[in-house]
Amino acid sequence: MISLRSVLQRKPRRRFYGDGILGGLLLLLVIIPALLAPWLPLPDPLKNDLAAAFSAPGSQHLLGTDQLGRDLLSRILAGTRLSLMVVLLAAVIAAVIGSVLGMIAGYVGGWVDALIMRLMDIQLAVPFILLILLVMALFGASLTNIILIMGVTSWAIYARVARAKTLEIRELEYIESVKAMGFSTPRILLRHVLPNLMTPLIVLLTLDIPRLIVLEASIGFLGMGIQPPTPTLGNLIGEGRSYMLLAQWLVLYPGLVIAALVIGCNLLGDSLLRKTHTRLD
Description:
- The protein has 11 helices and no strands.
- By secondary structure, it is mostly helical.
- The chain has one domain (19-32, 69-278): MetI-like (MetI-like fold).
- The chain is elongated and about 75 Å long.
- This is ABC transporter permease.
- Residues 80-269 form the ABC transmembrane type-1 domain.
């Protein structure tokens, strides 16, 4: 028979975070070679060699070559590096804009809150991909435009989380204390509200990056992103789809890299989310 003492003294069961480790390993497996690619003994990703066009994966070219004889491994690593830069900068822009607007909406309230919430509803109502393609068609597909557009069109989810958390924080006693001390609203938001928002926002950032990776790849696949010969994961698949019956590796390997990045970020984000909930409990 189990006694009450044995139940109370029983150690809590350890949670399994192996998926977070697996996610981190997947990301490292992709990101580290991409970062080290400029110093690795690899062919120039932009150099044509028509004599080696459509070479199958082998000792000469580990992942084969494309229709112009360019080394696919070099192009995938270069494309991964560029795609990750675009995604990370866009995610930071979205997180900054959304966090600031969410904190202001939750702390100030009133008509300011109502206005920001309506802007959020409008932004969420418009499909991301259609809005981005429209702006690309109007202003061109430069690297700066892609980063800014992806960042500006992704702030709403960060604002929603920041607003909800700020509504809780502003009712705490220490906020009332700093108000009584005469601290200004910007100082209260930056020094006393923002630090308490960092954990949920970082978790949200980790979970949102896979969406941005797929979005950036979709833009490149449709030919509205960074234009060839500069490689990105999306335009590599877009270029290779015309030769799928002849050289399947042109689509397979960039697709596997995108899958590894998305799955790795999702596993890592889920693990961070569970750890956050455990700490709060």
